[in-house]
Structures are given as structure tokens and as C-alpha cells.
Amino acid sequence: YNLSIGLLSYMVHSFYEMTDPDQINIYSFLSFLSIVVFGASLTGFVNTLFGKSKLRLKIMLGIAAMFLIIFYFSAALAVSFVFFYIFVAAMESLYLIIRAMIRKEKSAFIVGGGILTFFLFVVMVIIFKILDSLNIADPDKLFGDDFMGYVLGFIFISFPISISAYLAWEFASTNLSLVKQLDEVKRLSDVNLKQEQEKQQILQDQNDLLESQVDERTFELQKEKQKTENLLLNILPHEVAEELKENGSSEAKYYDEVSVLFTDFVNFTQSSEKMGAEKMLVELNECFTAFDLIMEKHGLEKIKTIGDAYLAVCGLPIKNECHAYKTVLVALDIIDFIEERKKTNPDVLDIRIGINSGSLIAGIVGVKKFAYDIWGDTVNTAARMEQNSEKGKINISESTYQLVKEKIVCEYRGKIHTKGKGDMDMYFALETIK
Predict the structure, then answer these.
(1) Nearest to 254 by CA among 359, 356, 327, 358
(2) What is the phi/psi pair of residue 427, to 5°?
(3) Peptide bond into 346 cis (omega under 30)
């Protein structure tokens, strides 16, 4: 738009400064062309800023293009119409600017001010020309010889000044808008950062809480697992329990060198009737608890209790070269425990113990409520040793005697007839050799 004003100004100046009459046609066409370009750029500029519909702009640009075709056929007709075109473009611009001002568009006041000034001075020029032609007033005499030149100059610079002001305002508005947007972006960034930090803190708190809950749950599971393992170890030997956990089953095994211990309380039935079931149960529990501790002390494996009988074995599942000696030591400790208990508790039952050494088979019985047990003639013989013992005595077989005679003082009892076994050599184990 500014270039079209500059082109128009240059062509008007060149046309008036022309000295060669042969160039009049060229200057006329270029001047005509500059006027058409000015009108097209004016309507394009104003419609781009303030026009709502693009149809009017397309029509005005199409008319400007038609003038070039008309000029080719009739220059006079094209020139006469082009001034009317400029007038229409000016009126259209005036209408669009006033409408934009009514809508209170700031750009309309800036750009429109320059355009309205242009129209004002054009009207002034027309009025002065009419007054001059009617010899009513001569502007040169009233305002000086250069007045009209100043007016025309101001007319042409009013557009660039207004557009420059508009561009400066637009740039300032855009810059201010960008500053506000940047401030808003910064504010939103701070808000997002704070929200992200809060979210991270919440996630961290949740993570800490979950870790704490997991640790607590793991600790509880470990406690429950330990309880389960302890319970399992109360039922099974450690090695058998580990084998059962790893494989889900445990095979019965043969052991060729072990010692079996049986204990039994003397006259248990009669004493139970005398003491009462509840009191007798308490007595049994205290005695068997003490027996468990003695077994653990010397490394024997408790197998089970059957009523008032207590069965244990030494030499399985881990082999022990001193199985017979360890078993006799356990028996001596049990006798000592009973004797000491009698000093403070007159209702303590007398006990008899039997021990036999040999081979046997040990393993788990069944799949439900399973129990670790031992089988073989060695076990049966140990039971016979207990049955043929006496209260407060430890009765051992020949096989056990041969293994402990160097360490334990024994008393030979001779051959004693046993049920299902015939006559068997038996010994009382009295004490360890000092």
C-alpha cells in the first residue's frame, strides 16, 4: 500500500516534469497504472484490516484488472472510469473505517485517522479549486504560493504516517501480548512444576507407604514362615524337613548304627486314677518338656510319645559314632531329673528306661497328619528292654553294652526271658566311668 502511494507520487511528479512530448503516451499509461494500483492496494489494505466479507474485495480487485483491458481498447474511457473507481474505493474505505470505529477497534482509530485526514485534505483541495475557478478565493494569495504544494505533500504522507503508527501500535500490542503470554506461561509453568512436585511427593509418600506395608507384610510372612518351620521342625528332624520342603516328599532311609531309647512311667494307670486326669496331664507335660531339653542337649532325635511312653533315637538322620554313649547319658540325665523332682514333689512317678543299639528304617508315614517314625527289630528290642527294666533303672541290651562298656559302669543281670525274643543278656547302666 505504501509502495503504491510512492509510485503514484513519483508518477505524478514525473508527469509534470516531463519535457519530451513523444513520451506522453508512456507517462500517461504509467500514471494510469499507478492510479489503478493505488486504488487496488487501498481497497485491499482496508478490507484486510476491517472487512468482514472477502467478496467485495474480490470484486474491487477484479474491476482494477478490467481497467487494464479497457485501457488497451480506449485510454480515454479507462481514464474517465478510473477516477470513479478511486472515488468508490475511497468511499468504501471511509465506510469500513467508520464502521470499525463504531465497533471501537483501536486499529481503526490509528489507520483510519490518516485515511480520514487524506480525505479531508482532498475535500479541501477540491473546495479551494472550485473557489479559485469561481474567482471567489485564491488559496495561493490567502496562504502563500507553496500552500497547495504543502497540502498535496501532507496528503501523500498522511497514509505512511498512519500506517507506521498502526504498525508500531500493532508491534507494541503484540509485544505486550507476548509478554503477558510469557508471564502466563511462566505462571502456568510454576503451577505445573508445583503440581508435579506435589504429585511426585504424593507418589513418593505412596511408594514409602507401600514399601512400609510390603516390609511389614514381608516381616509378618517371615514370622509366619518361621512359625511354620518351627512347627515342622517340632514334628520332623531338620534334614527331613528340608528334604520335604525342597522335594515335596521324603523317602524312608536305612540306618545301620543307631541307639533307640524307650521310657515308661511305672504304675501310670493306677497313679492317674489316684491323682486325677488333669493333674496327671500337667505332670506328664512337665516331665516330657524336661526330656525334650535333655534330648536337645545330647543331640538325640525325639520320635514320639505314646501315652506315658517316650521314644527317642540317636544316630539319625545324621550319623553319630557315639550314638550308644550319648543315649545312655540321656537316660542317666532323665533318672537324675526324676530323682531331683521327687525331692520337691512327692507325686512324681517312677520311671524305667530301656536302650538297644542296631539298625532300623526311618521315614515319614502317610500323606495327612504325617509323622516321622522308626521301624525294625532294633526298635522292638528297645521296647523289650524297657518292659524288663525296673523303676529308676536303665536296662540296656548286649549290643548297647558292647558299645559303652568302656565309658559306662554296667551291672550284668544275666539272661532274661523276653516275649517273642527268648532269653537275652541284659545290663543295668549305672553311671559314667570316672
Answers:
(1) 359
(2) -140, 150
(3) no
What single-letter amino acid sits at 247?
Answer: N
410 CB contacts (<8 Å, ≥6 apart)?
A: 396, 401, 404, 427, 428, 429, 430
Question: What CATH number does residue 414 fall under?
Answer: 3.30.70.1230
Question: Which distant-in-sequence residues (6+ apart) come within 8 Å of 173 by Cβ?
Answer: 106
Contact by Cβ (8 Å): 431, 408: yes
As a whole number, the mean pLDDT across the chain is 82
Share of the chain above pLDDT 70, in %: 84
pTM for the model: 0.51
DSSP structural state of residue 236: S
| Residue 383 CA, distance from chain mean position | 66
Distance CA 383, CA 385 (A): 5
Task: Give the domain extent around 127.
Answer: 2-183
Contacts 24+ apart (CB under 8 A), 95-98: 96/46, 96/47, 96/49, 96/50, 96/51, 97/46, 97/50
41 within some domain: yes
User: Do 267 and 348 sit in the same domain of this protein?
Assistant: yes
273: three-class secondary structure by DSSP: helix
pLDDT (0 to 100) of residue 249: 65
Q: Are residues 55 and 139 in the same domain?
A: yes
Q: Give residue 313's pLDDT.
A: 93
Residues 33, 37, 43, 47, Cα dihedral to 10°: 150
Domain count, the chain: 2
Regions of the chain short of the pLDDT cut 50: none
pLDDT at position 113 is: 67
pLDDT of residue 223: 84
Residue 129 within any structural domain of the chain: yes
Q: In 3D, which of 178, 343, 354, 365 has the Cα closest to residue 266?
A: 354
Of the candidates 191, 403, 411, the one whose C-alpha atom is nearest the C-alpha of residue 315 is: 403
- What pLDDT is attached to residue 139? 58
Name the nearest CA neighbour of 305 among 284, 323, 324, 325: 284
